[in-house]
Amino acid sequence: MTSAIDVDIVIVGAGISGIAAAVALQHTCPGKSYAIIEMRDAVGGTWDLFKYPGIRSDSDMFTLGYGFKPWTGREAIASGAAIKSYLQEAADEFHVTENIRFGTRMDSASWSSADDTWTLGLSTASGESGLRCRFVYLASGYYSYRGGHNPALANEAAFEGTIVHPQEWPNDLDYAEKNVAVIGSGATAVTLIPSLAGLTSKVTMIQRSPTYVYIAPTVDPESDHLRREVGDEAAFHQIRLRNLDAQQETYRHARAYPEEFKKAIFDAIDDVVGPEIRRAHFTPTYEPWDQRVCVVPGGDLFEAIRDGSAEVVTGHIDHLTPTGVAMEDGSHIDADVIVKATGLNLVMGGEAHFDVDGEPVDFARTWTYKGVAYSGVPNLFYGFGFVNSSWTLRIELVNEFWCRVLRHMDAVGARRVTPTLRADETDMPRLPYSAGVTSGYMQRAENRVPSQGDREPWLNPQIYAETVQLFESVDDGVLRYG
Fold it and tell me: Are residues 335 and 428 in the same domain?
């Protein structure tokens, strides 16, 4: 049976992943028609959504940037505004923007095996509509845009000041010369603190427990020299390869020799604020890379602590008072503004409803196929980057593999491809989607994400070389073409 379709492929999301997927598709499969649906009114994804002061990357732009568009900015750790501008440039330069349908949200996706099509339910400001396609690529990221993780604090209603979450930062928030308390110790908190320091009367980071924080240079020391020697593009690719190798080696070293890794991090912090503050507030109880290591470019967080414009309090919050935060140890932090940098809500599929031939898809009951697709779900891939390295490095591997799958489908005359468990794999133990990662947002999402198995290809490796090896074959007997 045949049926009419509107486009061959729909890419969901016009952030880093969606733009990269579109460029890869155009280059590798130029005969495929596609559309990108984007719920917001601009490209950028994360970098369009978040507006809190100082928002920046926590990966260097030589690896967070695209392999097909050299990053030419001087700063290795870039601001959110600079990243968004870079993404817009990429979308325009590679003629992706003209294929984006802004202000369009995917609410549902229904697969029909009778005609091998996805029918997407879309909503826009003008109403609801449908879109039919052969293949869906989810480039919608991994967290909910509807709101961040925002646990209630005891006696929260008693607080007489302002409470905000960084994901919903008000443009008119007045924090000048006020006491600000930032609850959290992750990437958002360590970015906010130095950005607010000096503009507020005092900014205090309240953390339940310490996080590993790494001081990195703001500007790559070799980039300017290399650019003069070989030009922007060649320098970019040399530094990208060097940083890729360095990130992977750093991760391996940290896992194999955690004490050596800790010492290097701790010594750098001690040089700025001294060992007493470091031991009290920046010495975690878990091992390096059990959770993502936070990057502090130029050590700005520690400079703010040293000059007294910021401080850190480690302990458990008991309740809020009209004027601030009461801690379990009896201390009180005065605050006019409380920022709940308490994290993200991880979701799959952009929170749309999926079904296959009328049967609802529960992603938590599926297995991840190579960290790019779901068992039993046809013609559906998703972009998910590394959690211990730059997101884009893995996304570009995913896209290359995806395009090879599309070309193989054409070569064998297939209209569908479905990751399918073999008979001896149905009783595999269910392992966490990102094994070894204990970050709160991953643990909270266990009932929303697929599982890993204990053998290939039902794995989601976080090592670059292992990922490359896993992606070698597009005809492994598990991907069923039909």
Answer: no
